[in-house]
Amino acid sequence: MYSILLIGSQGQVGRELRSRLGSYGHVTALARPEIDLSEPESLRGPMERALAAQAPRLVINAAAYTAVDRAEQEPALADAINHQAPRVMAETCAQLGARFIHISTDYVFDGQATRPYSEADPPNPVGTYGKTKLAGEQAIQAVAAQHTDFAYAIVRTAWVYGVGGKGNFVKTMLRLGATQPEVRVVADQVGSPTWAADLAQALSQLGHQLTSTGLGSGIYHYTNNGVISWYDFAVAIFEEAQALGYPLKLQSVVPIRTVDYPTLAQRPSYSVLDCGKISASLGACPPDWRPSLRLMLQELYTQTHERADERANQSADQNADQNADQNADEGANSLRR
Questions:
Q1: pTM (two decimals)
Q2: Which of 129, 220, 246, 270 is catalytic?
Q3: Is 200 within the bounds of a domain?
């Protein structure tokens, strides 16, 4: 058992990490408003206090600026969060002797490959988001070059979704499918969906190896197993959701081309990552994407209905209280008469 400092505990990956890391050690979480990633230098104080108070051996950064299109309009903010903040985190870890895990993205590549990207393939980001994420990777590696005893892992992933996410693809499809008869989805971009829970489990295991078994520092790739298009993913989401009883008005999913759905930032047409390195390190391959999607939808369905039941019970209790108050008032008035 060891101490762990988790930065960005409120996001979809951070929430899953927080629920899993407890089996590996004591977890201290830093998130807004305790820290402000848009002011990277302000991270040093909270991190140093947390490291001194809890003596963590592992720091995991699950925070990032992930608004791909908005990054084109806010390049300075994206750079502060995706580049400068990880640099400060790495410097602080190196100075205080903590291991560091940082989550990165397939967007460091240009998406023009025809085979899965390996960790050794040269990056070539085409948008602000990918460029700032690559700069963050390079900043961590620069710190490691100056501190030979600094151990780190950069984990690139892609197409992440989870129960705790607000704007991920799965939740967006469910929202649209519940209100619209037709959904149009890009069919010429392919990748590997990644359930945040599976990613968090892999990160937890990787962190354990980094702190306990002398795992070598470097870059790792992790996604769920399998390759599909966004269109195929959407079709699978609706098939699984319908089987679980989600209320859907959807009648058809229409495949479209990337050129038919213009965006501020260019999307990679090929986002498949080779996960052989991390599979060898963890001794297991990532789960297939479809069973993981099914598990996520089951969990979300259960949570949604539990909340609905709680609201119904609260409403019933309030009505009962109001009726009791009304009856008491009527009884009192009757006695007065």
A1: 0.91
A2: 129
A3: yes
